[in-house]
# Entry
Amino acid sequence: MEAMLASGINYTIFFYNPNIHPEREYLLRKDENVRFAEKHGIEFIDADYDKENWFARAKGMEWEPERGIRCTMCFDMRFERTALYAFENDFPVMTSSLGISRWKNMEQINDCGRRAAGRYEGLTYWDYNWRKGGGSARMIEISKREEFYQQEYCGCVYSLRDTNRHRRSQGRPLIELGTQFYRLPTADEDPSK
# Structure
């Protein structure tokens, strides 16, 4: 959001994430967005939880790997809905912060965003490199300051399954939904004090 403001973009948060499962995880992530939007006076659009449509589109792709065709389908679906809303409500630019994650293929995300925006005259997809210039470190810094919920998997039920399978193979504990939050160290934990 800081990058958008610095670039002169006045923004609205459009929350459309039918891929996030289970619903408890979806609500945790949505509530964090609502909390941040309310705190900073940012307009928040809730595009609803269209999970049946997402599962119908994912049918046959349940065992595809992360960054594969299931992810492309998921990005396409979400960008298509975002582009339609942007066009119908006279937004000239749309973007996504999905690219901040080092676990995502930024070109895959940007291709989907450009494809969706390209369907509507006057709509542009802003393919900003969120990782550039310390963007990932800044995201963690803000997440700690805001004490955001710390997501431990992409969001879809297949990502949760595969992440837990990997953790199990490494002898690590399985993901516990709703337990991990970013936080600043206390004075006792801060080695500079």
Observations:
- Strands lie at 13-15, 44-46, 93-94, 124-125.
- The longest strand covers residues 13-15.
- The two ends are 31 Å apart (CA to CA).
- Helices lie at 2-6, 23-40, 51-58, 69-88, 106-117, 135-146, 157-169.
